Amino acid sequence: MDSNEMTKNRAALNKCNRVYNSVSGFYVIGCVCYAGIAMYLTLVTCVVNGTYLFLDGPFFKGAVLAAGFLGTYRKNNILALLAPLIMFINTAVFWNADNLFDIFWGSVIHIKINALFLIASVILAAATVIANSKYHYLEQQPGFPQFSEIFEQQKTGRLEYGMSYEERAAELKKTARSEMDEL
Questions:
Q1: What DSSP element (H or E) covers 149?
Q2: Could you report how far apart the first and last alpha carbons of the chain are, in Å?
Q3: What secondary structure letter does DSSP report for 148?
């Protein structure tokens, strides 16, 4: 494998890692913020029936976070595609439900937020699936984790850029003079 191809593969692997970091960051920030707001509203309103906010916030958004984050962490397409499915179920279940968000923001804002989360989770899942397919392709290429010629040469046992230590030591023994021989 030539140096140019390894450089391209290393750049592609770095791009995959940037996608994974971005996607998991979006999942964490979005879902944790939403779940935190839902729990805060449950505490502020002191409502006996806080099951809606609990199910919509920590339960469903936690499941979306877990599926999306594990899809990127484990490079698993099934888990990555499970996140938008859970978000679709969440949106469908609570589409016309009475909720406590009405008290603070009005009835339409919750539908818009869930629809935005649904669209975002579809986009993030698509980015994850594309990155996973590229990552699995790169796994099959020689020099996979580092994509460095030096590491590949070390695997074969012979470095091409110079003599090995043993060869250099033998050469120095042949050409070296001993001070004691002269005496």
A1: helix 149-156
A2: 54
A3: -
